[in-house]
Amino acid sequence: MKLEKKLLIAIGREYGSGGRVIAEELGKRLDIPVFDKNMISMIAKKHGFDEDTLTSEDERLSSPFLEPYIPYGLNSGALSERLFTLQSKIIREEADKGSAIFVGRCADDILKKYDGLVRIFIYAPRNDRIARIMEREQIEDNLAADKIVKRTDKARKSYYQFYTDKKWESYASRDLMINSAVLGIDGTVDLILSFLKGAGYISN
After folding, report:
1. pLDDT tens digits along 31-74
2. Mean pLDDT score of the chain, rounded to an integer?
């Protein structure tokens, strides 16, 4: 695949829908970087944070009275808010450098004024997502996996709507919404590539 112009892809995803894997495969086929949990590692290394602590706050809203405070030269405040600020900075910096794929973290809103932005949302039926999580995390209890899916989706929804004032699962702020269970991971990637080709971003 050949890029015909700068391309920024922001992927929102329901937990267990395969959004992360889809993003990684897209990055390989388009030969462009993917930014997801690796942003946590980037921030931890640069600011000397404990990576596990940052991961526990990633894409979550926490009470400033309950979560840790870690001073690092910026204005004091809730860790989740400061993490959002630092991730937003990385997203903009990488978008300024060139084509890239960003997973979650309100990237579609952060980059809303950038040219070449394509906003995608990946979803799937609950049972399919539970099955994926059970296999990936080696969870044997269906109800336990269901609780994880519900809890993670709720956290992502609250996080997104707090920072963007938009509905997380709404088509209004998306260019393409895909049920990954219909075509599977590879088929979903192929569909996105066809969309990008039709929109003039890529060619064979």
Report:
1. 999 999 999 999 999 888 889 989 988 998 865 443 444 444 44
2. 91
In the predicted model, what is the mean pLDDT of residues 150-167? Answer: 94
Q: How far is CA 143 from CA 21, 138, 152, in A?
A: 24, 13, 14
- The token duo for 24 is 């990684």
Question: 49-81 burial, b for 16+ CB within 10 Å, e for fewer?
Answer: beeeebeebbbbbbeeeebeebeeeeeeebbbb
SS3 5: coil
DSSP result, 29-94: HHT--EESTHHHHHHHHHHT--HHHHHHHTT----TTTS----SSS----HHHHHHHHHHHHHHHH
Q: Which of 150, 103, 101 is nearest to 130 (CA)?
A: 150
List the structure tokens of 135: 């296999």
* Structure token digits, residue 200: 């003039």
- pLDDT of residue 190 exceeding 60: yes
What's the CA gap between 5 and 8, in Å, rounded?
Answer: 10
Q: Residue 169: what are its φ and ψ, rounded to 5°?
A: -95, 10
Task: Please list, in sequence order, all residues whose beta carbon lies within 8 angstroms of the beta carbon of residue 74, skipping any fewer than 6 positions away.
Answer: 82, 85
The single-letter DSSP state of residue 123 is E
- Taking the mean position of all CA atoms in its chain, how far away is CA 11? 5
* Among the listed residues 32, 25, 24, the one whose alpha carbon sits nearest the alpha carbon of residue 97: 32
